[in-house]
Design a protein that fits this description.
With 307 residues, the chain is an all-alpha fold. The protein is built from 13 helices and two strands. The protein has two domains: 160 residues, no CATH class; 117 residues, no CATH class. Helix 1 runs antiparallel to helix 4 and helix 1 crosses helix 6.
């Protein structure tokens, strides 16, 4: 169990470090001046060569490797830890991103954000102390097929959310994307193993892959349509609470004896603190390295800072 806890923390670190590396790569890849960036944003244009230049940046390529390493570590963590612990710890990657952003790209953190970073650290620590080993409850084939149906439902809900009015479109898309990431976590949890034969034969594998693709597309759409903070906060809430409940109700997840209330408080503290750091959910192309984080607006190139 200790190895799984370490794996979850490693996953959060990998995701958080990768996010900042992507932000640095975006700044280095942009060849436009501040004035050109503002004009292009006003005209709703995206630099078509940005992605090509990003792929030439070693930092960006390394960040993709870190994202992959983080995902593999998350899979390891889900083998032994309850879903409520893993998902809350993974959400803590925003604290890693915030601290590194303050150090490397000179993003100024308000005292409330430093308090939120501390809240993530304390919440994750308490979760590690209070979480019991994952339950041994098996799931049926129908449960795994239900995950595929859930992904299809999430895709339909995402299309519907994209047609909503501007005021509610971004949080709706973020919440639906978060549900998709939650399905991904549940699917990863119920995989029987990682051998090629087991993966090919198990419906959870296809649910995991489909959930990852659909969620990424919906989250990208949410960023394009509105505020990073709103979209990321909705993702964090939707990808943590529902899987935690599913793990407790259907997968046998539990806390250590006598520490249930500690686990509940730690989960709420970690997730609430991550939501408070939601503006670090994506890297929008800034004018200068020292200007601080800006909210993403439609027409600005951006790089996702989350899975």
């Amino acid at each position: 169990m200790l190895a799984s806890l370490v794996a979850a923390i490693v996953a959060a670190l990998c995701y958080g470090i990768a996010a900042v590396m992507q932000a640095v790569a975006v700044r280095a890849a942009s060849r436009r001046s501040a004035d050109h960036s503002q004009v292009s944003a006003a005209l709703g244009r995206v630099d078509p060569g940005l992605v090509v230049r990003l792929l030439r940046q070693w930092r960006f390529l390394a960040s993709l490797g870190l994202d992959l390493a983080g995902f593999l570590a998350q899979l390891v963590a889900l083998r032994r830890l309850p879903l409520f612990a893993v998902q809350a710890i993974i959400a803590g990657n925003l604290a890693v991103t915030a601290v590194l952003a303050a150090w490397l790209i000179h993003v100024e953190l308000a005292w409330r954000e430093w308090l939120a970073v501390a809240g993530v650290v304390v919440g994750v620590g308490l979760l590690g102390v209070s979480a019991g080993a994952q339950g041994a409850t098996g799931v049926s084939g129908q449960f795994k097929f239900a995950l595929i149906v859930a992904v299809a439902g999430i895709a339909v809900a995402g299309v519907a959310a994209s047609r909503l009015g501007r005021a509610v479109r971004t949080p709706a898309l973020g919440a639906v994307a978060g549900l998709g990431y939650g399905v991904l976590a549940v699917a990863a949890r119920v995989l029987p193993g990682f051998s090629l034969t087991e993966l090919v034969r198990d419906p959870a594998t296809y649910a995991l892959a489909a959930a990852g693709i659909v969620s990424f597309m919906l989250y990208a759409t949410a960023l394009e349509s509105g505020s990073v903070t709103v979209a990321t906060a909705a993702v964090v809430l939707a990808e943590t609470a529902p899987p935690a409940l599913i793990g407790i109700l259907f997968l046998g997840d539990h806390t250590r004896p006598g520490l249930a209330m500690v686990a509940v408080a730690a989960f709420i503290l970690a997730v609430a603190s991550a939501v408070a750091l939601a503006r670090f959910g994506a890297a929008s192309e800034g004018n200068q390295a020292g200007t601080g984080a800006r909210e993403h607006t439609q027409g600005e190139p951006s790089v996702s800072w989350t899975r």
